[in-house]
Design a protein that fits this description.
about 170 residues, alpha+beta, Umud Fragment, subunit A, seven-stranded antiparallel β-sheet, 7 strands
Length: about 170
């Protein structure tokens, strides 16, 4: 049982470290991760999808591209429905919405183009943004660390007892 706990703890630690390093490295090269929180882009990007956004020059956008933009403090990801090159704005539409969005999006409000996405990987990100999620993740980390220390110290005691019996 101790070996199973040790293996599980080590796997979880490695996954946490790898995912943290991956997000930091992506951010370092200009790629930002966001989690989809509404069904407006279903079925391509259902709720819980982790999207990865790359800053893109306005002239490189095409109709049909999925872009992320800011409206006040809200981050939105929709598909480009129409481009107005003269005014440097786009009209967007969620794939699951019946009509295009009401207001044109100015070039300065566009964060970038969605380059790739992982369905459902964003649920952890969404959960971690909540107070309960932050507390839960810290508590889980403390419990895993404690389990790791406890199982290793009991293994050390067992090894010492075996040596003293020899």
């Amino acid at each position: 049982m101790k070996k199973i706990i040790n293996v599980a703890v080590n796997i979880i630690f490695v996954l946490l470290i790898l995912s943290s390093v991956a997000l930091v490295l992506l951010r370092a090269v200009g790629i930002t991760a966001y989690a989809v929180k509404t069904p407006s882009m279903y079925p391509v990007c259902p709720v819980g999808t982790m999207i990865f956004v790359v800053p893109t020059a306005f002239d490189d956008f095409s109709e049909g591209d999925i872009v992320t933009y800011k409206v006040n403090s809200t981050v939105v990801t929709h598909r480009i429905y129409d481009i107005d090159t003269e005014n440097r704005t786009v009209i967007t539409k969620g794939d699951n919405n019946n009509t295009p969005d009401g207001s044109p999006i100015s070039e300065k409000n566009i964060v970038g183009k969605v380059e790739f996405y992982i369905p459902y990987a964003g649920y952890v990100y969404i959960f971690a943004e909540t107070t309960y999620g932050k507390v839960s993740l810290v508590a889980a980390f403390v419990v895993l660390a404690a389990l790791s220390v406890l199982t290793r110290s009991s293994d050390d005691e067992t090894k010492q007892n075996e040596k003293s019996e020899d």
